């Protein structure tokens, strides 16, 4: 009897200790969470107070006319810029619509391909679409964009310059370019809505197929399938994939293309702010069993780097080209705001099937 009572007592004691520990841990967590929320409230209060103070001073003293919509856009843009997110961006309602069109493989622009990096403070043109307004105006690959509508681009980001070049269909934009050492007379280019051709292909010889991918958007998958079927039908015994100057695009489109090429397994996962990792896409057992080479350069970025590394992870391809690629291994998420504008923020790092994340390192 005494042994049973002792066992019960020990059990009760353990239960009390466990309950006490659980209560203590819960209290510590709750206190930390409470402190964090109080801190957030104080920081927000300080931010809003400062904005209100600046707003009051301006409205009481500024002699000019305030464009309220422009002011709101600038405040939102500065807010995103101020958090230090390299790829974060505020998009006006018009810019957000252009973003959606671009992801769907449609764009209003001039038909010039540019990277995300500047060259000596200017934006290099790395490609010009055949039959595009840019080609018709005389812009060539290798030119540097030095001004837009008479405004020098020095001090601007690549995204800012691109936003200035884009605009409404049928409107014109004046583009100043430097060709070699010569600054040419500004060229007037009429913006046009164009279906984006992101895949081109041909046979290099009787046995080698060549497929160039300039970006990954929602129509790239169908274009890629057409190109792959063509080179295989022509008797390709090996394929060269060219992703030089490919700035990336949507994770879903590159994942769908990789699904065609690689065997069963994970394609890409993402690691979020809270530390958890989630598999975003997997491949089925179907694959293409041909030797593959991926050609890259320092402007191969983001989804194009994932394309390259995933093929290497599954031993489907080797990569050749510049020593390293751009090194963008982060994922952005865009959130639409009530007025039709949007905020694009970095929310995760994304990972190839087997290799570590390559952000800041390259492939």
Order of helices and strands: HHEHEEEEHEEHEEEEEEHEHEEEHEEE
**What is the mean pLDDT?**
88
By helix and strand content, what is the structural category? alpha+beta
What is the count of helical runs? 8
What is the first-to-last residue Cα distance?
71 Å
CATH topology of the domain at 197-351: 2-enoyl-CoA Hydratase, Chain A, domain 1
Shape field: globular
Strand proportion = 25-35%
Helix content range of the residues, please? Answer: 25-40%
| Count of DSSP strands | 20
CATH class of the domain at 197-351: Alpha Beta
CATH superfamily of the domain at 197-351: 2-enoyl-CoA Hydratase, Chain A, domain 1
Poorly predicted spans: 1-6
Radius of gyration: 27 Å
The largest sheet, given as strand count, sense and whether it forms a barrel, is:
6 strands, antiparallel
> What's the CATH architecture name of the domain at 197-351?
Alpha-Beta Complex
Describe the structure.
Among the domains are: 106-194, Pdz3 Domain (Roll); 197-351, 2-enoyl-CoA Hydratase, Chain A, domain 1, CATH 3.90.226.10. The protein contains 8 helices and 20 strands. It has helices at residues 2-61, 68-82, 93-103, 133-137, 158-165, 220-233, 251-261, 303-313, and strands spanning 89-91, 106-109, 112-113, 123-124, 127-128, 144-148, 151-152, 172-179, 182-183, 187-190, 192-195, 199-203, 208-213, 238-242, 265-272, 277-283, 292-296, 317-321, 330-336, 342-351. Strand 17, helix 8 and strand 18 (317-321) form a beta-alpha-beta unit. The radius of gyration is 27 Å and the shape is globular. Mean pLDDT is 88; it is low at 1-6.
């Amino acid at each position: 009897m005494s042994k049973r009572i002792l066992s019960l007592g020990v059990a009760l004691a353990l239960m009390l200790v466990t309950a006490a520990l659980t209560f203590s841990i819960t209290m510590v967590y709750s206190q930390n969470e409470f402190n964090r929320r109080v801190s957030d409230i104080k920081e927000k209060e300080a931010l809003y107070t400062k904005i209100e103070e600046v707003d009051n001073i301006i409205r009481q003293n500024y002699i000019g006319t305030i464009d309220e919509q422009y002011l709101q856009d600038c405040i939102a843009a500065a807010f995103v810029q101020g958090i230090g997110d390299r790829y974060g961006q505020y998009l006006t309602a018009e810019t957000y619509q252009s973003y959606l069109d671009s992801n769907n493989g449609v764009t209003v622009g001039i038909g010039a391909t540019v990277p995300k990096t500047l060259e000596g403070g200017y934006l290099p043109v790395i490609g010009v679409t055949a039959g595009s307004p840019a080609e018709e105006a005389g812009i060539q690959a290798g030119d540097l964009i030095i001004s837009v509508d008479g405004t020098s681009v020095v001090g601007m980001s690549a995204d800012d310059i691109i936003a200035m070049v884009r605009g409404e269909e049928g409107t014109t934009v004046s583009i100043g370019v430097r060709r070699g050492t010569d600054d040419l007379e500004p060229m007037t280019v009429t913006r046009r809505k164009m279906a984006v051709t992101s895949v081109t292909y041909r046979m290099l010889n009787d046995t080698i197929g060549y497929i160039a991918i300039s970006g990954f958007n929602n129509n790239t998958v169908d274009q890629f399938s057409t190109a792959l079927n063509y080179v295989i039908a022509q008797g390709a015994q090996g394929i060269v994939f060219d992703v030089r100057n490919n700035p990336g695009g949507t994770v879903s489109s590159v994942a769908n293309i990789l699904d065609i090429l690689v065997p069963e397994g994970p394609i890409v996962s993402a690691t979020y702010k809270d530390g958890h990792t989630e598999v975003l896409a997997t491949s089925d057992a179907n694959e293409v069993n041909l030797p593959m080479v991926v050609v890259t350069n320092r402007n191969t970025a983001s989804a194009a780097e994932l394309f390259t590394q995933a093929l290497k992870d599954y031993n489907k391809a080797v990569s050749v080209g510049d020593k390293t690629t751009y090194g963008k291994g982060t994922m952005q998420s865009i959130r639409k705001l009530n007025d039709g504008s949007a905020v694009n923020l970095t929310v995760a790092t994304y990972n190839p099937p087997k290799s570590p994340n390559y952000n800041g390192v390259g492939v």
